[in-house]
Specification:
0% strand
Length: 146
């Protein structure tokens, strides 16, 4: 568990694996990964925005009773956006660490990382249109005819 002001992973809580990785505790790897996701969620406004849209997508999926293949597409989009947003946070942190002053290449790295999230989000909107519009139109026409 993360203590106030102390990261959940650090030199005193993390043992790097040597060689084949047999000495690396899997539970610690999962704990550190979870810590990274919590950090991204708690510090990144866009991560929270994506979480709201992900929740909306799930609620809409249940409301419109989308078929299983559509659920797969929705879940993959949600996971891709969250994964890229977390990676974007990591890239920004590394760039800030190694280049605290403004640098053109640092800007390019940050912009490209942010661009990957943007591409996934736009792609997710396209998937949402394909998945949700047909059942929404069908529902609207059945309500209009009733």
């Amino acid at each position: 568990m993360e203590e106030e002001g102390k990261p959940c992973c650090g030199p005193d809580r993390f043992v790097r694996h040597a060689g084949d990785g047999s000495s690396f505790p899997m539970s610690q790897a999962v704990a550190c990964a979870t810590c990274g996701i919590r950090h991204a969620f708690s510090t990144q406004r866009n991560f929270k925005v994506h979480a709201v849209f992900a929740a909306l997508a799930v609620v809409l999926g249940f409301a419109l009773r989308i078929p299983q293949p559509s659920w797969l597409a929705v879940i993959l989009c949600i996971v891709a956006v969250f994964a890229l947003e977390t990676l974007n946070t990591a890239v920004e942190s590394i760039v800030d660490l190694v280049s605290p002053e403004w640098n053109r290449l640092a800007m390019v790295a940050k912009d490209c990382a942010a661009g990957s999230v943007f591409l996934a989000a736009v792609g997710s909107l396209v998937v949402a249109a394909v998945v949700y519009l047909p059942p929404a139109i069908e529902l609207a026409s059945s309500l209009a005819g009733a």
